[in-house]
Specification:
By secondary structure, the chain is an alpha+beta fold. It has 4 domains: 129 residues, no CATH class; 86 residues, Beta-Lactamase, CATH 3.30.450; 69 residues; 145 residues, 2-Layer Sandwich (Heat Shock Protein 90), CATH 3.30.565.10. Helices cover 57% and strands 14% of the residues. A hairpin with a 4-residue loop joins β3 and β4. α4 runs parallel beside α7, α8 runs parallel beside α12 and α9 packs across α11. The radius of gyration is 44 Å and the shape is rod-shaped. 26% of the residues are buried.
């Protein structure tokens, strides 16, 4: 691929038309300037018959007027022609370009030097004034562009809108924008330049600029945070370096705003979808709860009051139905709790509680599962009270106990510890099961996640997800430490009650 700096580009028709129009205007202004010198000469020589000094001053004033009204080219030509007319019509011998008195040579060249210097200074002052006005217009156009980008329609592609706004604000016949993230090229007009797409992509990927003076084509990378996110091509007008840099920054901000808005929209859609799923899950779970309550009442009644009246086979069937009702009731309760925690429908009812009472309450709830299992308690006697929602924290502990009992052999012990650490109480529950592989430890708190080797165990994968949401609502953490073959230990941190920190 040839180098951009050495490559050539075909000049579009509008550039040729502008160059031709510019040459025509320059020729017209030059002819007008010469006509003005000729008119002054006729008036001074034929009608007013002024002396050489007066004629010289009038010629000088005329050159200054031409420099102020036109440009340096016209004023320079007018200075030379005025010097020749001054010499021919007012310096003796009149009617020739020779000078008899050597002192007049000094006067003539002094006039020429004065006219040239004055025209140069006047033209320079005019050019600076024009540049100042041009910079002011650029600032106004940049301000207009910034307002237009702020009012951009979020439902339309931002790249297309940026290209159109730039073309409108700066009145450019050619504007093209390349967006690197989507690899899309957006054009503001139908007019195209050869190889423009390749130049745009090259500028974005290599972070290099390109400029062609003949066609006034500029291709520059768009950077955000030092990284190129696209490129912009403009043709038909020359912008100052400061204006071009500001334009690229505005375009970068516009594209970044579109990216941020798109991310926010996706996040909002995801949030609304999650809330909808949580609402549906909550509604379905509540619908299940009513018949489950009835089933549980029937099975409990049959097993308690008339168990001796039932044949052995029927008692076994009722017992299976009762256990299944308990299991299904727990699943429904977990589903309701998960829906509430994810949907933000629950509110913490914090109070001052002792960790020992929270652990004791959780063990009472788990009595049917802990019977026959060894539970080792190690709770420091001097633990300060904590500021928590007791019901929610007991639920976390029961989920962790259930998880420990489920994943450890029946003949092994489950350890429950609590200690003060770093200004908070840390409760841990450890089992002697197979442990959790390192690559799965970051996923076990996700809802419905089941380990690769846990497919045959009972459970839905909601318990740890519920525990994580409850701890997040308390502003605390839950984490795990485990090695394969050495069991697993889950930790939760509990905030101290006010005043307990100073004790």
């Amino acid at each position: 691929m040839p180098s951009l700096a050495n490559s050539t580009i075909s000049q579009p028709r509008f550039v040729s038309r502008r160059m031709g129009a510019g040459a025509t205007r320059l020729a017209g202004r030059t002819v007008a300037s010469l006509g003005l010198i000729a008119a002054i000469t006729i008036l001074l020589y034929r009608f007013f018959h002024v002396n050489a000094t007066t004629a010289g001053f009038l010629y000088l004033v005329t050159v200054l007027v031409i420099a102020a009204a036109s440009g340096i080219v016209e004023s320079t030509i007018a200075s030379i022609v005025a010097m020749l007319c001054f010499n021919y019509f007012f310096f003796p011998p009149i009617g020739t370009l020779t000078i008899a008195d050597p002192q007049n040579w000094v006067a003539l060249f002094a006039f020429l030097a004065t006219a040239l210097v004055a025209s140069q200074l006047s033209a320079r002052a005019k050019r600076r004034t024009q540049e100042t006005i041009a910079r002011q217009h650029e600032i106004e156009k940049l301000y207009s562009l910034s307002r237009a980008l702020l009012l951009a329609d979020a439902s339309r592609p931002m790249g297309q809108q940026v290209a159109q706004r730039v073309a409108q604000a700066f009145e450019l016949p050619v504007v093209a924008l390349y967006e690197r993230a989507s690899s899309s090229v957006y054009r503001a007009t139908e007019q195209e330049l050869p190889e423009l797409d390749e130049r745009l992509k090259d500028a974005a990927h290599r972070s290099t600029s390109f400029h062609d003076e003949g066609s006034k084509l500029t291709v520059a990378p768009i950077r955000l945070g030092g990284q190129p996110i696209g490129s912009l091509a403009i043709a038909g007008s020359s912008l100052s370096d400061a204006a071009l840099h500001s334009l690229l920054n505005l375009v970068a901000i516009g594209l970044e705003r579109a990216i941020s808005q798109d991310s926010m929209n996706r996040a909002e859609v995801a949030r609304e979808s999650e809330e909808l799923k949580s609402t549906l899950l909550d509604a379905i779970a509540h619908e299940f709860q009513t018949p489950l309550t009835s089933i549980k009442a029937v099975t409990t009644g049959l097993l308690s009051d008339s168990a001796h009246m039932l044949p052995e086979q029927q008692r076994e069937l009722v017992s299976i139905a009762d256990e299944s009702a308990d299991r299904l009731s727990k699943l429904v309760t977990d589903a309701i709790q998960l829906a509430r925690t994810e949907g933000g429908a629950f509110r913490l009812k914090r109070g001052v509680h002792f960790v020992s009472s929270l652990v004791s309450g959780a063990l009472r709830e788990m009595k049917s599962l802990t019977d026959g299992r060894e539970i080792n308690l190690s709770l420091s006697e001097d633990l300060p009270p904590v500021w928590v929602d007791a019901e929610m924290i007991q639920m976390v502990i029961t989920h962790l106990l259930d998880n420990a009992l489920k994943y450890s052999p029946s003949g092994t012990a489950v350890s429950v510890r609590a200690q003060l650490s770093d200004g908070r109480v840390t409760v841990s529950i450890a089992n002697q099961g197979p442990g959790i592989p390192v690559d799965e430890q970051s996923s076990i708190f996700e809802k419905f996640y089941r380990g690769k080797n846990d497919r045959n165990l009972k459970g839905t994968g909601m318990g740890l997800a519920i525990a994580r949401e409850i701890m997040a609502a308390h502003g605390q953490q839950i984490w795990v430490a485990s090695q394969p073959g050495k069991g697993a230990e889950f930790f939760v941190s509990l905030p101290l009650a006010r005043g307990a920190e100073a004790e």
